[in-house]
Every structure is written in structure tokens, then in C-alpha cells.
Amino acid sequence: MNGGYINPPAEKRQFRDPYADWWDKQERRNYGEPVHEDNDILGMFSPEEYTHFKPSKGALLLGTFVATVLGLCAVVYPYYPDKPSAPRAFPGGLDIELGGPGTLHATSEEER
């Protein structure tokens, strides 16, 4: 008791019957009903409790997804063309074309 205030049991409003005859239908509350001191956590506008399935099934689903993606990567990897099938060879190499020591420069020796 907080100074004589009756603190009702902690019950999330999302788990109350939505079809009952509530005075406040949105908050699922009756007129004059005492409000819990943690109403900000227990009210309808607080984050929803996730009750669709248990954590073990969630871990199973996540593991299945990861195994599927890694399996797909393992199947695609041998067929992925990451390099050419035969590397190109140029007669005399590409020393002049890539600006090697025997190239003709665009500027003269005085401008450098």
C-alpha cells in the first residue's frame, strides 16, 4: 500500500477481454477502477508482449534461415565466375600502355 492507495495486481491490458463491456474501451478499463502504479508499462499504449511463439521455436526458425542462406552460398560459390576462365596475355606485356619506364610522356622534361 502506498499511503492507503490500493495497488491492483499487475495485469497487462492487452490480455484483458477486448469484447467485455468496458467504460473505456480503448484502454480496457472501467470507471473508478484503481490504476496500477506501473500503468505506463501495463497500459494499451505500451510495447506489445510478443506471444506468437516461444523463444525455442524462434531460435529454430532463425537457425533454419541461417542454414538456408549458408547452404545457398555453398551451392552458388563453385559456379560463381569470380575470375576469367583464361587470363589474357599480351605480346611484350603492357609496360608502355600502362606508363612504364619506356613510355613517351605528355609533358616535356622542363615542365616536370
Could you walk me through the main structural features you see in this protein, from its secondary elements to its overall organization?
The chain is mainly α and 112 residues long. Helices cover 23% and strands 0% of the residues. The longest helix has 22 residues, at 55-76. The relative contact order is 0.08. The mean pLDDT is 84.
Largest sheet: none
Fraction of residues in β-strands: under 5%
Total number of helical segments?
2
| Secondary structure: helix percent | 10-25%
Mean pLDDT: 84
- Multimeric organization: single chain
Helix and strand pattern = HH
Runs in which pLDDT lies below 50 for 5 or more consecutive residues are none
Give the CA-CA distance, first to last residue.
Answer: 89 Å
Give me the Rg, rounded.
36 Å
**What is the tally of beta strands?**
0
Question: Which class do the helix and strand fractions yield?
Answer: mainly alpha
Principal-axes geometry comes out as: elongated
Spell out the key features of this protein.
mainly alpha; 112 residues; 2 helices; single chain
Secondary-structure map:
Layout: H1 39-42, H2 55-76
In short:
By secondary structure, this protein is mainly α.
